[in-house]
């Protein structure tokens, strides 16, 4: 877990340390992801008036109680096409996802990983010179493989499952700060 | 609901809308007009209230009814008789004589609109139409609007105004109104901080770091749909005006009155001043009326009776006898004729092809033949004077002018011979030559404004020797060139002086009288009622016509001054009476009028036409005097 924190920190500071020309980069955080109990940050950079690259990181280290927990680390690198101009108006995007999870509820605990390709779309509204509010919905095809345990401390291993599925992978209302 | 019921329902709706308009049409209701006399003040009284018969019934205690009446004493029998008030009956004359003063007549008439034409949902428009000769004049309208009608009008206008308010005016700030300004401002602040687009200063050369130009940014945030909607609304103004305002307000009306409560007939005293013209002796007046209802139906009423006005004016007194002015005619007549014949340099022969010689020669021939053809004159002598300009040595010019004079003389002789004019065969022809026309040059220089050293050149004229004088002028190079090109040609000329005498006269002078056309023009102006022009011409003559012109202009002081200097006649006395009446001197006005009637009885009838006299006739009952 320490490794992950280090990685995330390096990543965030790495982006910030790039000599920023105004309006080329942004960092943001999703309200919905935060509400579900995950620390998250999304860094992005524009390469033209229409295209920007995005890298959101999600990390949920918290445990609600003995029986209910979702521990998650996810990475969703992707690109967006902005119909009018970067960081303003409508956009469509595509991204890849890698997620490592360990979550339990009721009787079972799932411990595994997933990766997949998704498509998203959304709208960004400019609030001030520096701040945007953004809504984004996305979903795609995922391959997931996990082990199933009984949901108790050092619960018994039950089975391993792998499957392909179509799932929503982004439901974000985010505040974005333009650098 | 079957078809018949539906039909009946629709029929009942359509007929129920305008039952009373139909009634108006059936009853042939028309507005009435009558003359308004200056003393007539009854038009605005409620006639029904004046109908108060002073008789009432007294019921005695025994049950017997006694009718009590107003009573007066019969002057013949001495008995008391019952006085009975009768309802007033208005008899209105269909024609009236009106007088013209200062080229203007005033028409006064009363328009009465019957009670049945005044309904809350109606608007009655009355249009007085004057006919004067072939002209038709529409006077200003009178509009009576019912309260309900007015309300519906106002409602329509309000709806239209509400629509107009939704149109963005042209002077609105374009950026503020037609763009998504908050987003545009943030975007510019973020990506193009140097732009001053919001302040209205466009600069297409600047772009964002991603190459988006200012113009493109503006286009993105422009609300094109709003511009289109606004333009569409502007185009629809006319259509929506017609849709909302079914009955627009009528402009240029004399009166636009809203009838809230109908209270008997509506009467309006219409007063109109009218300029008189030559043809306006009779003016006819009609009233045309139209009734419109709120629901859109309208009815044009039949025209009212015609009122006729006969205009009497002072010009009836105009004295049209011709005037003559005496003129002195002399037997001897001297006429001079200048012509410019150009000669070639140092040439003495007439060359018709040179410059405009042909034109000047033909003018000379025309003039000669003209003098002869009139057959009024004998040509006694002709003096031909040839001039030359001061250009060159004096001696040469002297020779040239003599020879040129001779060749013109020869030409003149030839023309007379070719015209075969007997009358010109015998005149003495003298030749004169002026070598250098210095006085002529001096005159031309004096009139000239384009010369620089005008005064110093004029000073040189005191030098005696003409050649030295010319050489001195030559020193003013620019001016000399001008003089040579523009002034010298005018000096090279030939002048003819004809000494003529009238054929039919033996005495040297004769006194004749000629018709005074100026005076007649003044009289004509007077008859055309162009008084200002007439006065301008006639004021010098100080006769009855000038007095009439002054009086028609309303200048009674000047008129009376002239009248007092004239010989007494019926017309003069009558005009004097009018002046006295205008000044308020009734005693002398009556005296003068009666004296004029003594001289000419028709003045008694004339007196009724002029308000100044007719009021005296009424006041002092002068007609009795006359008829007796």
Description:
The complex is a heterodimer of chains A (179) and B (628). Chain A has 179 residues and is mainly β. Chain A has one domain (2-178): Porin (Beta Barrel). Helix content of chain A is 12%, strand content 64%. Chain A is built from 2 helices and 9 strands, in the order αβαββββββββ. In chain A, strands 1, 2, 3, 4, 5, 6, 7, 8 and 9 form a 9-stranded antiparallel β-sheet that branches. In chain A, a hairpin with a 4-residue loop joins β2 (39-46) and β3. The longest helix of chain A is centred in the N-terminal third of the chain and has 16 residues, at 2-17. Chain A is elongated, with a radius of gyration of 18 Å. Chain A starts with a helix and ends with a strand. The model of chain A is unreliable at 16-21 (pLDDT under 50). In chain B, α4 (147-165) runs antiparallel to α9, α18 (544-553) packs antiparallel against α19 and α19 (556-564) packs antiparallel against α20 (570-583). In chain B, strands 5, 7, 8, 9, 10, 12, 13 and 14 form an 8-stranded mixed β-sheet that branches. A 4-stranded mixed β-sheet of chain B has the order 16-19-17-18. A 3-stranded antiparallel β-sheet of chain B has the order 1-6-11, with no helix packed on it. Among the domains of chain B are: 326-502, OmpA-like domain (60s Ribosomal Protein L30, Chain: A, 2-Layer Sandwich), CATH 3.30.1330; 517-627, Serine Threonine Protein Phosphatase 5, Tetratricopeptide repeat. Chain B is an alpha+beta fold. Chain B is flat, with a radius of gyration of 45 Å. Helices cover 42% and strands 23% of the residues of chain B. At the A-B interface, loops of A face α6 of B.
Blueprint (SSEs and pairs):
The complex is a heterodimer of chains A (179) and B (628).
Chain A lengths: L1 H16 L7 E6 H5 L3 E8 L4 E10 L8 E7 L2 E5 L6 E17 L2 E19 L4 E20 L6 E22 L1
Antiparallel strand pairs in A: 1-2, 1-9, 2-3, 3-4, 3-5, 4-6, 5-6, 6-7, 7-8, 8-9
Chain B lengths: L2 H15 L1 H9 L4 E4 L11 H4 L4 E5 L5 E9 L6 E4 L11 E5 L4 E10 L8 E11 L2 E4 L2 E6 H19 L8 H5 L2 H11 L22 H8 L2 H12 L1 H8 L8 E7 L6 E10 L6 E12 L4 E3 L6 E6 L11 E7 L1 E8 L17 H17 L3 E11 L6 H26 L8 E7 L3 H10 L6 H6 L6 H8 L3 H15 L2 E9 L6 E7 L1 H11 L3 H8 L5 H10 L2 H9 L5 H14 L2 H14 L2 H6 L3 H10 L1 H6 L1
Parallel strand pairs in B: 5-14, 9-10, 17-18
Antiparallel strand pairs in B: 1-6, 2-3, 3-4, 6-11, 7-8, 7-9, 7-12, 12-13, 12-14, 15-20, 16-19, 17-19
């Amino acid at each position: 877990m320490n490794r992950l924190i280090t990685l995330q920190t390096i990543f965030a500071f790495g982006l910030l340390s790039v000599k920023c020309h105004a309006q080329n980069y942004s960092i943001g955080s999703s309200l919905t992801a935060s509400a579900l109990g995950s620390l998250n940050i999304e860094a992005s950079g524009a390469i033209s008036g229409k295209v920007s690259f995005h890298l959101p990181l999600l990390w949920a280290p918290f445990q609600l109680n003995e029986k209910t927990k979702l521990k998650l680390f996810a990475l969703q690198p992707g690109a967006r096409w902005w119909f009018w101009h970067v960081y303003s108006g409508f956009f469509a995007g595509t991204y890849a996802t890698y997620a490592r999870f360990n979550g339990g509820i009721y009787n079972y605990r799932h411990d595994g990983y997933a990766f997949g390709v998704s498509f998203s779309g959304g709208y960004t509204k400019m609030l001030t010179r520096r701040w945007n509010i953004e809504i984004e919905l996305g979903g795609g095809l995922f391959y997931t493989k996990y082990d199933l345990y009984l949901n108790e401390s050092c619960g018994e291993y039950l089975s391993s499952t792998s499957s392909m599925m179509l799932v929503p992978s982004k439901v974000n209302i985010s505040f974005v700060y333009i650098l | 609901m079957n078809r018949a019921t539906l039909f009946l329902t629709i029929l009942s709706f359509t007929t129920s809308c305008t039952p009373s308009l139909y009634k108006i049409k059936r009853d042939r209701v028309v507005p009435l007009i009558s003359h308004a006399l200056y003393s007539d003040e009854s038009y605005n009284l409620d006639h029904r209230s004046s109908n108060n018969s002073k008789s009432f019934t007294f019921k005695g205690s025994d049950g017997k009814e006694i009718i009590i009446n107003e009573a007066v004493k019969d002057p013949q029998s001495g008995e008391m008789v019952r006085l009975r008030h009768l309802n007033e009956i208005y008899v209105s004359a269909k024609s009236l004589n009106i007088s013209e003063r200062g080229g203007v007549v005033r028409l006064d008439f009363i328009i009465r609109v019957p009670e049945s034409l005044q309904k809350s949902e109606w608007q009655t428009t009355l249009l007085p139409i004057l006919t004067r000769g072939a002209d038709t004049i529409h006077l200003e309208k009178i509009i009576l609007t019912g309260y309900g009608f007015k309300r519906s009008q106002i409602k329509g206008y309000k709806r239209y105004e509400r629509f107009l308010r939704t149109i963005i005016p042209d002077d609105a700030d374009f950026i503020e109104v037609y763009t998504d300004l908050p987003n545009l401002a943030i975007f510019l602040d973020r990506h193009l901080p140097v732009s001053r687009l919001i302040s209205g200063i466009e600069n297409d050369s600047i772009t964002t770091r991603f190459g988006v130009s200012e113009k493109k940014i503006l286009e993105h945030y422009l609300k094109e749909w709003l511009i289109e909607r606004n333009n569409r609304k502007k185009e629809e103004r006319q259509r929506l005006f017609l849709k909302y305002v079914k009955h627009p307000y009528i402009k240029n009306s004399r009166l636009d009155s809203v009838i809230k409560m109908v209270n008997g007939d509506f009467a309006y005293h219409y007063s109109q001043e009218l300029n008189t013209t030559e043809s306006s002796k009779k003016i006819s007046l009609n009233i045309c009326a139209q009734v419109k209802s709120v629901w859109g139906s309208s009815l044009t009423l039949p025209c009212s009776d015609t009122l006729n006005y006969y205009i009497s004016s002072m010009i009836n007194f105009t004295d049209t006898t011709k005037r003559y002015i005496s003129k002195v005619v002399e037997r001897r007549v001297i006429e001079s004729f200048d012509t410019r014949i150009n000669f070639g340099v140092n040439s003495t022969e007439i060359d018709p092809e040179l410059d405009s010689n042909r034109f000047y020669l033909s003018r000379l021939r025309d003039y000669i033949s003209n003098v002869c053809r009139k057959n009024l004159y004998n040509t006694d002598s002709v003096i031909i004077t040839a001039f030359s300009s001061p250009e060159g040595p004096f001696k040469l010019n002297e020779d040239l002018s003599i020879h040129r004079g001779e060749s013109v003389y020869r030409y003149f002789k030839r023309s007379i011979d070719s015209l075969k004019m007997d009358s010109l065969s015998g005149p003495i022809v003298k030749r004169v030559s002026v070598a250098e026309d210095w006085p002529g040059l001096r005159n031309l220089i004096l009139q000239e404004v384009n010369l620089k050293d005008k005064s110093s050149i004029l000073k040189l004229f005191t030098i005696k020797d003409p050649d030295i004088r010319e050489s001195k002028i030559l020193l003013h190079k620019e001016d000399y060139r001008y003089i040579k090109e523009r002034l010298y040609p005018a000096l090279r000329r030939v002048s003819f002086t004809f000494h003529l005498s009238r054929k039919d006269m033996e005495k040297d002078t004769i006194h004749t009288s000629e018709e005074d056309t100026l005076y007649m023009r003044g009289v004509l102006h007077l008859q055309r009622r162009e008084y200002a022009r007439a006065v301008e011409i006639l004021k010098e003559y100080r006769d009855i016509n000038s007095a009439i012109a002054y009086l028609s202009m309303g200048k009674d002081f000047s008129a009376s001054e002239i009248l007092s200097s004239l010989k007494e006649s019926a017309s003069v006395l009558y005009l004097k009476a009018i002046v006295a009446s205008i000044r308020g001197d009734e005693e002398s006005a009556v005296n003068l009028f009666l004296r004029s009637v003594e001289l000419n009885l028709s003045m008694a009838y004339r007196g009724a036409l002029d308000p100044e006299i007719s009021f005296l006739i009424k006041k002092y009952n002068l007609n009795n005097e006359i008829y007796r």
